[in-house]
């Protein structure tokens, strides 16, 4: 059983050491360190120190392009898009999104720089976190719009489909975006592999797993991918534990078909009062689906990221740790 936890919000080594010991003590085998654009600019060596310390203590280390370009998941902001506004995604209302375009060659080059720096920290695994195009219903999104329809995307669409990009988010536009994200990831994953890192991909869960047209087999087929999974945050999605079960089964099935390790993330944040027992039940659902790599977002139940702080952070974190200790004994 591999158990992991994300870690962010602190770059003070002596405090982080105590926290890594707490992770080891509850059975964690790996830690996911975030490596945002802020870190890339101001804390490169400090993050490398965190990675080295975590490895010395015996944790496998994953590194996450947290919020980079706002193409990857996470609260961290992008600066690259401000410095290079020509790389921003264009939205159907004629205004740019606060997110870079994964098709833009300059952003691609920046992601290679990020990968160089991430590999240089000494991390074992590159954790490709929720790569996505502009989401109209996510932070900074504008309802009833869609993207990206920048000049680069329009040209790429025409090459792919032999006709101009429509002015509506048709099924073909959705297919286009998925194919582009897969191309983008394929380039980065091959590059990360060249740099000597293993690669883990976490895709956003299907909102409606029964009706989706997205086929995760296409993601799982990316060469040099080692671990594949998703983060079915059922409380955030306002779903029940069936959401976790269905996604865990799908991840396991896709991973088995492609010889990958299956990973599923546990929602360890914004846990409403009284629903803490579901943290243990969600983990049990993952294990029942055959998943043997479980990670939680994030350390201390995200008490310090107060917009997603659980109603009872101490109880949520204690429940997570107790559950992890129990799972660790499964071997
Ligand atoms: Zn674009």
What is this structure's SSE topology?
Elements: E1 2-7, H1 13-25, E2 30-34, H2 37-42, H3 44-57, E3 60-64, H4 80-83, E4 88-90, E5 96-100, H5 105-120, E6 125-129, H6 151-161, H7 171-194, E7 198-203, H8 216-220, E8 227-230, H9 242-258, E9 261-267, H10 277-288, E10 293-297, H11 313-328
Parallel strand pairs: 1-2, 1-10, 2-3, 3-6, 6-7, 7-8, 8-9, 9-10
Antiparallel strand pairs: 4-5
Helix pairs in contact: 1-3, 5-7, 9-10, 10-11
The structure holds zinc ion (ZN).
Describe this structure in words.
The protein is 42% helix and 15% strand. The protein has 331 residues and is an alpha/beta fold. It has a single domain (2-76, 103-133, 184-328), classed as TIM Barrel. Strand 8 (227-230), helix 9 and strand 9 form a beta-alpha-beta unit. The radius of gyration is 19 Å and the shape is globular. Residues 89, 101, 103, 148, 150, 152-153 line the site of zinc ion (ZN). The site of zinc ion has 7 residues, from helix 6.
């Amino acid at each position: 059983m591999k158990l992991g936890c994300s870690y962010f919000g602190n770059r003070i080594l002596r405090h982080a050491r105590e926290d890594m010991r707490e992770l080891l003590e509850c059975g964690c085998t790996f830690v996911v360190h975030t490596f945002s654009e802020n870190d890339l600019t101001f804390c490169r060596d400090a993050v490398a120190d965190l990675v080295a310390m975590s490895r010395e203590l015996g944790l496998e280390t994953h590194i996450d392009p947290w919020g980079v370009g706002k193409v990857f998941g996470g609260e961290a902001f992008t600066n690259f898009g401000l410095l290079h506004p020509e790389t921003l995604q264009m939205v159907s209302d004629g205004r740019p999104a606060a997110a870079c375009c994964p098709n833009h060659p300059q952003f691609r080059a920046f992601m290679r720089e990020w990968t160089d720096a991430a590999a240089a920290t000494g991390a074992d695994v590159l954790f490709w976190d929720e790569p996505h195009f502009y989401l109209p219903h996510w932070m900074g999104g504008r309802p009833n719009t869609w993207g990206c329809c920048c000049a680069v995307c329009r040209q790429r669409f025409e090459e792919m489909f032999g006709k101009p990009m429509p002015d509506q988010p048709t099924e073909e536009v959705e297919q286009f975006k998925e194919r582009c994200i897969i191309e983008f990831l394929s380039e980065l994953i091959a590059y990360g592999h060249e740099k000597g890192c293993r690669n883990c991909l976490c895709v956003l869960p299907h909102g409606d797993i029964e009706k989706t047209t997205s086929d995760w087999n296409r993601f799982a087929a990316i060469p040099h991918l080692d671990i594949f999974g998703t983060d079915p945050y059922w409380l955030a999605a306002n779903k029940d534990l069936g959401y976790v079960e269905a996604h865990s089964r799908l991840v396991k099935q896709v991973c088995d078909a492609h010889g990958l390790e299956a990973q599923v993330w546990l929602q360890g944040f914004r846990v409403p009062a009284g629903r803490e027992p579901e943290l243990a039940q969600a983990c049990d659902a993952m294990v029942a689906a055959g998943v043997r790599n479980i990670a939680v977002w994030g350390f201390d139940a995200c008490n310090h990221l107060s917009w997603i702080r659980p109603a009872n952070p101490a109880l949520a974190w204690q429940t997570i740790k107790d559950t992890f200790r129990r799972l660790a004994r499964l071997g």
